Amino acid sequence: MKLFALVILFVFAESMSAYATGVSFPGKSADTCVSPNQKWCIRCESQEQDSGEYVHQLFLNRVGQSDKVSIWESGRSCDTLWSDDSQHIAVTDWSGSNVAGIFLVDVQSPSRAVELDVKNIRDIAQKAELAGHVYYEAVKWESSRQLLIRVFGHTDELNSSGHGFTYYLSVNISSGLGKLVMKLDDEMFGWR
Questions:
Q1: If the chain, 192 residues long, is cut into consecutive pieces of 10 residues, what is the mean pLDDT of each piece?
Q2: Under a CB-based contact definition with an 8 Å cutoff, are residues 95 and 77 in contact?
Q3: Distance CA 41, CA 180 (A)
Q4: CA of 50: how far to CAs of 54, 55, 145, in Å?
Q5: Are 135 and 79 within 8 A, CB to CB?
Q6: Which of 112, 99, 94 is nearest to 22 (CA)?
């Protein structure tokens, strides 16, 4: 049964990677990411602070124009994912060692990114899971209003009730409601 689950996971992951085209910032070779329709560009600018640490900022602008809007800022890293229609950007903010969130940008009214709030996550995941190390990651745009995300991590219990978890959810970005696509058991990842 575990072998069958691993095969399903591999096929699922491979199909997702074929569609998930995004860019990680800050990057070694890429400091820009152009939208699928070639009309918009995301640029990462990094500035060293007096402390010696860096602040990274993402800017959005029309290709060929100098006017830009700041959409994300952090001292860590992020992954960006354009929707196929070039109207939205999902930013996975790897903001800490125990947390990551997803922020959305609508290019028609570009302002700072707004955090994706999965309103029914407490109906899907366990309370202990949401209190532990929790990472929200944008995987792929399914349509202009539907985003496939991965919610994963592990609980903080040190006893036998502690476990890792992974949920794939299809989330409507307008309503914030998620639908469970797949749940994977922690044993598949060797968490314990």
A1: 41 40 69 92 89 89 92 89 95 91 91 89 93 94 96 80 89 97 70 40
A2: no
A3: 32
A4: 9, 11, 41
A5: no
A6: 94
